[in-house]
Each structure stands twice: as structure tokens, then as C-alpha cells.
Amino acid sequence: MECGEPVEQVALRPGMSVDELVRLLGRAGAYNGGALSRGADIYEKMVRDRETVKFFGLAGAMVPAGMCGIVSDLMERGHIDVLVSTGANLTHDIIEAIGCSHYHGSAACSDVELRHDEINRIYDVFLPNSAFIKFEEFMQDVFSSLDTDRTFSIMELLGEIGRHLDSGILACAAKNDLPVFCPALADSMIGLQYWLFAQTARVTVDAFLDMKALIDICFAAEKAGALIVGGGVPKNFILQSMLVTPKGFDYAVQLTGDRPDLGGLSGATLDEARSWGKVCEEAQTVTVYGDATITLPLLVASVLERLDS
Amino acid sequence: MECGEPVEQVALRPGMSVDELVRLLGRAGAYNGGALSRGADIYEKMVRDRETVKFFGLAGAMVPAGMCGIVSDLMERGHIDVLVSTGANLTHDIIEAIGCSHYHGSAACSDVELRHDEINRIYDVFLPNSAFIKFEEFMQDVFSSLDTDRTFSIMELLGEIGRHLDSGILACAAKNDLPVFCPALADSMIGLQYWLFAQTARVTVDAFLDMKALIDICFAAEKAGALIVGGGVPKNFILQSMLVTPKGFDYAVQLTGDRPDLGGLSGATLDEARSWGKVCEEAQTVTVYGDATITLPLLVASVLERLDS
Amino acid sequence: MECGEPVEQVALRPGMSVDELVRLLGRAGAYNGGALSRGADIYEKMVRDRETVKFFGLAGAMVPAGMCGIVSDLMERGHIDVLVSTGANLTHDIIEAIGCSHYHGSAACSDVELRHDEINRIYDVFLPNSAFIKFEEFMQDVFSSLDTDRTFSIMELLGEIGRHLDSGILACAAKNDLPVFCPALADSMIGLQYWLFAQTARVTVDAFLDMKALIDICFAAEKAGALIVGGGVPKNFILQSMLVTPKGFDYAVQLTGDRPDLGGLSGATLDEARSWGKVCEEAQTVTVYGDATITLPLLVASVLERLDS
Amino acid sequence: MECGEPVEQVALRPGMSVDELVRLLGRAGAYNGGALSRGADIYEKMVRDRETVKFFGLAGAMVPAGMCGIVSDLMERGHIDVLVSTGANLTHDIIEAIGCSHYHGSAACSDVELRHDEINRIYDVFLPNSAFIKFEEFMQDVFSSLDTDRTFSIMELLGEIGRHLDSGILACAAKNDLPVFCPALADSMIGLQYWLFAQTARVTVDAFLDMKALIDICFAAEKAGALIVGGGVPKNFILQSMLVTPKGFDYAVQLTGDRPDLGGLSGATLDEARSWGKVCEEAQTVTVYGDATITLPLLVASVLERLDS
């Protein structure tokens, strides 16, 4: 066993840029600070690599926490080719896009009082019920505009929704013709709105149709890379799709708050993914443990600064 | 503010039963030990309450860790009316049911070597690739037997699979005519097998059809209770379905390794669910933080002992 | 790489004993359930091994949570030769021993109201200020009885306190003539009481004197084993003492809620301790991640049952 | 209940400064990103408040991870009046100050091989044994220079060490005449060196003498604030010292990876500290959950930028 570079004690400079800080964390090199810096190095290589198809996995309640802006910005800049999201993030993206807001709240409060005041809580974020009334109107309008008697994939359905919006993730994806996958869409407020609509509708949404589209992308990819926020369905759906191809992911960076010892996929290391072949043997990967409301902005701001200079 | 009962120092008795231990944890009453004991009290009430429809949410890699036996046992005893699972757990359930095994392994190993030896790793559990060959044969057989030119719900598809099996969760559900929901089925090896099958098939699986079935159950329920292992899609899909009814869950026990401060649903408290109306204002709820491979057997063994006496 | 034993699906038996359950977790063998079972196997061997000096490390707020009963029981049965504790656990042990109680409380409450009601909170445990008034009387009595003009070690001071008590950890240690170490005693209510006493006293307590006593025990030990609850000072003080001997620990079981990736010792694996030589190369060790109010009673009850049969 | 400000979606600007980023996290306002931003606001007020005595608590293996530079920088700038540390951090500070280095390593390695190669591991940081040989020489030199036949406090002992060094935390504290407290000094390599020295020495170090010095500071303080990294002894020793005064802390920011539900002090909220009176009723406090190798540089760089402009 050999020692690597010496740990450099961090010397902060007032007014330093985010990338300067992230590079200092890299020269210190330890624990999750070091991992974050290695994550920025890998993500920089990945977005600079023109042969690489770029996947982005979005789990956790990221949109209510203001992270939607980062995702749509990465799309606009061409750094996301394929987005896989939970239904909840897309629900909250629509809520913001139709002009409603999430609000600063508190985790130390009476949820019964909140219930009486018609406010829904997501940890320390508050969301008034009124947003869901507007959301229902919007969703029913979109669904009513769908061609009847045909079968949609979930990706197509999300594309339709995006085309009715002017801002946010779904709008940005639609505008740039980027596929958004969400295998568990039924498990969201969008799903509940669809259930309402489906009581009288003649539209079919196929549960598996998107797999072909996604796997075709995987087959066509020279190389593949993924930035994965949280775990859940998006992480697995991205990684498993490569399983049926002869390839694996060449780059993968995961930002998660879960730990591996519980056995769940959300906290599983990307090394584990190597045993399955989801990730190449020689892939560059790193997992950063922590809250993505800190690690995602830090990592992306650092890499955008590098790309910009 | 008032103090409750005094904390009793735990006095272990060699040979004591599991429920004796759990009751001692309740008299000590603190932290997650106390929460586990309150969870057992709530779960006991819930399963004894004949008016209550009993939901079970299964997330995390529980079947590879031997927890499948507990779920099918609870089904056999009539303590589960509705199961919502991740696709991964159902995949591993099928693998066990067709005669393959998961194996004791190690988390400290070379995943590249494992890859060469055709062994897939789930933290410290090993699963040889050979299991997936047998799995493919089985799944293609099942899918080939499906009626063509019709539309299935995911629940119906899982029912078909269960009827081809003799043991495990899906078999037990099929035998007892219990619905199994899995909104993100595409996100699993079952999904990948379906993609393979679908290249030549004429069967449609509807992504949203199950919502009607589940919501009908919710509307019909006098009262409702849930035991939720992990978070993810199963937790939300169970809780959200009550949103469109005038009711909320009356009992809810969650066993999770996630924490609330990251904002994600998996670690969200059941109090938060009260603000949304997913859980009744006066519902009895508790969250136990920890590894469900410890907390689930402990909680269930304790309650089975109470029911048996 | 080779697969080990097959994972056995857990089959619970209503009324089963705790050790039956722990053995089932071992046959399932995965994640922290598997680790707990291996921990019980190691701890059983350790306590049965007559050549082994048995250390116990006690960190975290374990006494307010009712875990004091387990520690004193292990002492009475001869399974602890050396205890290393935080000052807080010894403070709360004294509080219980002088007839005061900790109480069931709640973590969701107003701490300002608690302050007004003179109740101190430890997560969901409440402790009225009145206990500290009685504690002060007791401690000043004990300190006043000390020989003046001499130098005590912390272990001697704790021995004096224990001889004034009838129940609990310190009393039990004193009765059985077992050393209790607490290097950070100043960092506790006992320390604050000593500060009060020291304003007029002529007694010296040496900060380092105990090291000789502890290291002498390490040198004299044929073999050494440790059960470590939490991390902190007790974990390190136990492990570091072996560093100056030619030996390392032969058995070590750690129950902790911390994770390794943050770099801190409390979450560090016992493998890491091998690189330092604190733990033997061939030592039997395991770390169980989780809340010790669940894992400690489970592990000890399981091992006591084995020893009893 | 009322909603606060709307959550603003984060809009990153390539090349933005660290404080710009932290302020964006504040306008997003959610989870630990929001908490970090509030922490910067509180810490800014605290360091700008000339009436406030500023405490810094240093736990976790922060120096091997390069965080020593931040602490000594804060000291030089006058933002730390009192430092409370673990013994391990001071050991590693001395190691760096005498010209040895910690090195980038890996957590996925054989600790037995590391042992053979005489390398000690701290998660993914490597430290060769040779550093401890030089450390021993240095420490024995310092101890040999101590006045015999007198009693030192731990703070005085650390002051002596600092005066023999040119860089790092202890040197900087000595140069600026700042007190460094370390109640558990025996629990460290410094302690082991003292044990070696003490086999022939006639110097006494009093375990409790520092309490008077620290409590005198607390009594004299107009107002008090604390930045607490990790938990452990430093957190409690800082907070408990205020207990014997009529005051409590006015500002407190904690950066920790532990969670409250395990009951331990390291993860305890600062609200809990309000019930004890360690923190004022109206104090401004926040806890940021995460790895301090990320949160500490981010928070301090943000505040230094504000102070500089």
C-alpha cells in the first residue's frame, strides 16, 4: 500500500470562487469533501466528453428545495441528454411552472394546525393546498387535449405536459426535445390527476413502452455517464438499462444521504454496481454522502466555472 | 409540560421471549427502542382491528436479506390485505421461488473480481448470474402464456406471475387472492424481461389502471392501517391513495433508515403526512429509525406472540 | 470470490426466545441483522474465554434510556472486567441510584416551555431539575468525605462515589472491585460538582494517573476483548491503551449509530483499528450500525440465553 | 401557521463566489442547504458582535482532513476566543506542525496490509508510523522541559506544547494567548506520550483545574457564541460551562453528522440545549447535518467574504 499526495490544510480566501473552494477540498482530499471534489473532476470530464450520453437521475424532494433551477440550467446548457425523475419532482416542477410557489416553513410545528390551515409540509418547506387546485385545473386541461384512442408512453405524456408549460424542467425538456422518464409516474399527484381523468377517458398509457426508448439510447451510446441525485427509482432505472447492452456506464457520480450498510439501492456504492456490470470495470465513479441541497449546487457551480473559463 | 412514566432500567432474563424484550424496551421507553415498542403496540391494535384494511409497504432490498419469509407469513395469517412493493423485491422473490438462492457474502471485496466470477453483490449478499438465466426462462414462459390483444394492469400481471409459483410473496398473494401493487415495475429485472418479451408481443400493460383498484379499496375501507418498511414508491403510493377519499390512515408504523432532515419522503415523519391528510389527525403513528433487518423481525415476532397468546 | 451459505428466509415462531430470533437473523445473514448475529457469536466466545480480559465502552445517553440495568447485570455476572464510560452516563447512573428517575417524554415539544417547567430534555426523555438538587447534595457529601491533601486518580474518585451508592453501575463496580475509567470526567455534571467543591477544597485529581492502571491491565492480559456501545472517548481510550503493548484486541464488537464516511472515530470500522494495531490482524470483530437501545438488549439477551443453557 | 418567503429556485452563475452560493441556498431555504445559510447569517452576527465571547468546538478527525488551516486562520483573525478540542485533533495538529504529513489514501483497502506497511488509516487518509516516531521525540522533549514539582492544568500543558511549535492550531493559540481546553487529553496519543513520560516524572496535571478558568470566562462574558464542529466532549464542555452562570449561549451553530433520534449529545438539537438553559431562550441557533469537511469550509468562506467586504 502506498500513500498518495499529502493532505493540504485548507486555506480559505475571502471572496474566493466556488471552484476555488472545491479545488481546495480536493487538495485536502478527505472524507466527503474529498469525494465531492473528485466528483467535480469526474463530472467535468463527463460533460466535456462529446462521445458520452449524459444521464441525470433526480430523486428526493429536490424541486421544493429550489434545485429545479439547476436541473433546467444544465438542460439548457446541453449537459443533460436523458432525465429520469420521480413523479413528485415533476409534480412540484409543474406547480412552480404554473405560477405557484413553495414557501419557507419550519419542521418544528404542529402538523394538525397546518392541516387546519390547508398547508402541506415537506420537512421545512410549506405548500398551500391552493396550489393543488390550480394544479388540478392545469392537469385536467392537458389530459383533455390528448388524442383519444391511442397509447402513450409515459415519456410522451410528460412531453405533452411540458409543451403546455413555459418554465421549469418539463418545459425546458420539451423545448429542447429531451426525453424525461418517470417509471413510477402513477405514484405522484400527476398519477392521481390521471386517475381522475381516466374515469371518463379513452387514453392508454403503457407502463413499459419507455423501456424500448431508453434502451435504444443505451445501445446507441458510444459512452455513457450519469449524475445521480438521491437513489430510488431514477438511480436504478438509469443503471439497469445498460445491463442489456454489452456496455456499462463510463462515468457516474452519486449524491446521496443514504448509507450502504442498510442494503438498499439508494445508499449502495457505485462499486457494487460494477459487480452487476451496470458500471464499467474501469469506470470513474464516486459517491458523495450528504444533503444534495448542499452538494449538488456546490458540484455544479464548480464544474460550470471550469467549463466557462 | 409534564413527565410521563419513569424510565425503567432494562432487566434482561436469559431465555426471555421476543415480546418480553420488546415490552421491556417499552418500559424503558426511549429513542428508537421505545419507538419500536410503541410500534408493536400500534401494529397489534391494527391487526386486531377487524374494520381496518391492512396495507404493507415493502422497499429496500428486503428479500435478498431473508425478510420475504416474514411478509408471506403475515399474508398467510391474514394480516396483509394489500401489498405495495418495489420491483426489485418481487424480482428477488421470484428468484427464491424458482429454486435459486441468495448467498452470504461480504461488502469488503473486489467488485471487479465478482464481475469476473459472475456474481452480483447487494451489500454483503451475493447472487450468481446463473439465477438470472433461470429467471429469464421462467419470466418468458409466464409472459408467453398471457392472453394477447388485451390490456393488463400491473396487479393483474403480478397475479399471473404468482399463479406460476409455489412459494414466496407473489405465490402467497395469488393463493390468497391478495392484490400486489408495484407502480414502478418497469424499474426492475421483471421490467427488463418484459422489454425482451415485448419486442415481439401484443400485450399492453397499463401504467395507471391499478390506481382505480387501489383507490376503490381505500374508499371501501372502514378504517386503514399501514406497516411501511423503507420508504420510496411503496410508502408514497400507499399514503397518497387515501388523499382522494375523505379519510386518512388510522394506524401507521414506519421502519426506515432515512432521516427527515434531507427532505425526502423515505425519511419523512408520519407527522408530516398529517399535514397532507394522508394520515388522520388522531391517527396512531410511529417511525422507528434503523435497519429493517433488525426492526421488522423484532416487531413482527413480538406482535405474533401477543396474537398467539 | 465464492458464495457462502444460502440466505435463509426468516421464519418467525410466535413466542420464540430472543436467541432464537438472533440465530434466525444469522442464517438470513445480511446487513445489520446479520452483523448483529455475528456480534452475538463473537461476544459469546469472548465472555466464555477465561483468558480474555473483558472491556466495556459506554458512550451515548444510555443510562437515561434504561440501559444501565444491562451494564450492571453484565458486571454482576462477571462479564465486565473494565468499564470505560462518558461522564454523562455516570451522572445519570448516580441520579438513578440516589432515587431520582428519568421520565418518558417527547421530542416534539417546546424546549422553552420545558425550561419554564424546570424539565431538562434528552431527546424523548425528561429529567426534572429537582434531580440535580438531590444530585448536588449527594456529590458534595461524597467529595467532603475525601481525604484531603492527597492525589486521586479519576478511577479512585469514581470508586469513592460508588461506595456511597447501593444500586447502579458505580455501586456495582465498587462492590465487585471493578475499575471504572472516565478520562473526560470534567466534561459532566460530576465535573461541575467537583468545580463547586474545589473552590474550597484541597484534593487533587490527576488527569493522567489512570493511564498507568489501564495500561498495566493491558500488559497483564493474556487476551483482550471489547464490547463498545457508541464511540467517543470510551471507544478510543479502550483501543489506544493496547497500542503500547505488543498485543491488540482479540475480540471487538461495536454498536454504533455513526457511519465511517465522516472520518470520525465513533463511526470508524474496526478494520481501520487493525491498521493501527489496536485490534489484532486475526481478531474477530464486527460493527453493528443502529440504535443501541435496540441492538444492545438484543445482543446481550441472546448471549445470556446461550450462557444459561 | 403562516408561510414564509417563497422558495427561490437556485440560479448558479459560473465563477460565482462562495458567499453568493450560500446566499442562494438561503433564498432556496430548504433542508440542510437552508440551514447552512442560516448558520452563516448567525455566525456572521456572532463574529461581528464585539460583546460576544466566541467559542469553537472541534471534534471529529478534522485535522487529518485539512480543516486545521481553517481553525488557525479563524484564530489569527480574532474570531476564536476559546477553543475546546478532542485530543486526537491536537495530536494531528502537532504532527503537521513538526513537519509530518497526512496523505491521501483509500477506504477500500486491506488494513492488514496497511499494518504490515506501517501505515495507519483514518477512513481515506493514511498516516505513516514514522510520524509517530518524530511525534514521540517532540513530545518527550516538551515534557522534559516542564517545571517539576508543580501542578499544571491541561490548558497550561497545551500552552507549553504550543510554545514549542511554529504553525498550526496550538502554535497559533499560544502566539495569540488563547486558551485551548481538552478535558479528555488522556484519551489521545498526547496522553500516551504523557504516560511514557510520567513513568519517571514529577509533574502533576490536574483533571479539573481548567474548569475554573473556563467558567470564569463564562461568568465574565457579556454575551457568548459557539461554532461547534461535531459533538462529543467539546460540544458538551462548552455548553455545560454556561450552566453554572445565570446566562446561556446567545448564538450557536452546530455542524454535525449525527442525528437526534439516537439520544446522544453529538446529534442532539440545540433546541434541546434550551431546556437545560445551556442556550438562551431567545438564542439564535441552527444545526446543519452533514460532513464538516464540506459544511465548515463553506460556512467559514462565506462569512469571511462578508466580513471582508
Report, as a whole number of angstroms, the end-to-end distance of chain A.
Answer: 37 Å
How many distinct beta strands of chain A? 11
Uncertain runs of chain A are none
Under CATH, the homologous superfamily of the domain at 52-100 and 130-294 in chain A reads Deoxyhypusine synthase
The helix tally of chain A amounts to 13
CATH-level-2 architecture of the domain at 52-100 and 130-294 in chain A = 3-Layer(aba) Sandwich
Mean of residue pLDDT of chain A? 97
Oligomerization: homotetramer
- In N-to-C order, the SSE pattern of chain A is HHEHEHEHEEHEHHEHEHEHEHEH
Percent range for β-strand residues of chain A: 15-25%
Question: What percent of residues of chain A adopt helix (DSSP H or I)?
Answer: 40-55%
Q: What class would the helix/strand composition of chain A place it in?
A: alpha/beta
Q: What's the arrangement of strands in the largest beta sheet of chain A?
A: 7-2-1-9-10-11
Radius of gyration of chain A: 20 Å
Largest interface: A-B, 75 and 75 residues
Shape of chain A: globular
* CATH third-tier fold name of the domain at 52-100 and 130-294 in chain A: Deoxyhypusine Synthase
Level-1 CATH class name of the domain at 52-100 and 130-294 in chain A: Alpha Beta
- How would a textbook summarize the main sheet of chain A? 6 strands, parallel
Q: What does this 3D model show about the protein?
A:
- 4 copies of one chain form a homotetramer.
- With 309 residues, chain A is α/β, with parallel strands linked by helices.
- Chain A has a domain at 52-100 and 130-294: Deoxyhypusine Synthase, CATH 3.40.910.10.
- Chain A contains 13 helices and 11 strands.
- Chain A has helices at residues 18-28, 31-48, 68-76, 87-97, 111-116, 130-144, 154-163, 169-175, 189-198, 209-220, 232-241, 270-276, 292-308, and strands at residues 52-58, 82-85, 103-104, 119-122, 125-128, 151-153, 180-181, 204-206, 223-229, 249-256, 279-289.
- In chain A, strand 1 (52-58), helix 3 and strand 2 form a beta-alpha-beta unit.
- In chain A, helix 3 (68-76) packs parallel to helix 8.
- The mean pLDDT of chain A is 97.
- The interface between B and D is small, with 10 and 10 residues.
